[in-house]
Design brief:
Elements lengths: L1 E8 L2 E8 L7 E7 L12 H11 L3 E5 L16 H16 L4 E11 L1 H12 L6 E5 L4 H9 L1 E2 L2 E2 L3 H4 L1 E4 L2 E4 H8 L3 H5 L5 E7 L8 H10 L3 E6 L9 H19 L1
Parallel strand pairs: 3-4, 3-5, 5-6, 6-11, 11-12
Antiparallel strand pairs: 1-2, 2-4, 7-8, 9-10
Helix pairs in contact: 1-9, 2-3
Protein name: Xaa-Pro dipeptidyl-peptidase-like domain-containing protein
GO molecular function: carboxylic ester hydrolase activity
Organism: Catenisphaera adipataccumulans
């Protein structure tokens, strides 16, 4: 079953889609977080496909547009990474409130910046999360701002003078920049103490595969790392797409079922 759902916190509404298998009793749940400048369906609908495949395997899932994205409340120019973490925390609380969900079998999955947000949120809430799955985790969106004052490969060193940056036609506020300077993505991620599955393309020019390699070093033997040769950030071939779909699906089945 697929049904439209809403989650409200701090007076703003997040809108999404929940997939629930036709099983009786409490079910495991995966929270899917989309990437930077995307929505709940993700690039080429890969999160929609993953949700349906999870449902067929007896695993529920929920995909929300984060604040300022897709159909949810807010303007994209008002987003911050901390705000997305707060959204993820609100979604986690919403999921845990549902009678149909087994609270001991909840996982996060995220793509690109969503993978970074998923890892940070899972670390902060490690007692409530059973497993973590990421595709092309974009931790360097934060570290590039901190170390190089770049965003999506663009020089934004004048953001404090202008008060905003124009990135691919979207306005990013100085608040987004200041927020990123205060974050420790790897420090938060390191607090997660259960199993992790990491997938990255070795030709990713948007979020370096070094991000996932560093996460693998942090998680050690608790993490699987699949580097897909030839794949870029969008995994633009049917074999690339299937490789990451299958990797996440098999991992989440093994951890939650």
């Amino acid at each position: 079953m697929e049904q439209y759902v809403e989650c409200t916190h701090d007076g703003r509404t997040l809108r999404g889609m929940m997939h629930v298998p036709s099983h009786t009793g409490k079910v495991p749940m995966v929270i899917l977080l989309h990437g930077f400048q995307d929505d709940r369906n993700e690039i080429n609908f890969v999160h929609t496909e993953l949700s349906r495949r999870l449902c067929d395997a007896g695993i529920a899932s929920v995909r929300f547009d984060l604040y300022g994205s897709g159909e949810s409340d807010g303007c994209f120019s008002d987003i911050t990474v901390s705000g997305e973490i707060a959204d993820a925390e609100a979604i986690l609380a919403y999921v845990r409130s549902l009678d149909l969900v087994d609270p001991d079998r909840i996982a996060f999955h995220g793509t690109s910046l969503g993978g970074c947000v998923a890892a940070m949120t899972a670390g902060r809430h490690h007692q409530e999360i059973r497993a973590l799955s990421t595709w092309c985790a974009a931790t360097d969106l934060i570290t590039n701002l901190q170390e190089h004052q770049t965003l999506c490969g663009l020089d934004v060193s004048d953001i404090e003078t202008k008060g905003y940056a124009d990135v691919e036609g979207l306005r990013f506020s100085v608040d987004f920049y200041h927020d990123a300077l205060q974050l420790d993505p790897y420090g938060d991620a390191a607090k997660f103490d259960k199993h992790v599955n990491l997938v990255h393309g070795d030709q990713d020019a948007t979020a370096s595969c070094e991000n996932s390699k560093k996460l693998k070093e942090i998680y050690g033997t608790r993490a699987n790392l699949l580097i897909v040769k030839g794949a870029g950030h969008r995994f633009l071939s049917m074999p690339f797409r299937e490789a990451r779909e299958r990797s996440a699906l098999e991992f989440l089945k093994s951890e939650l079922c």
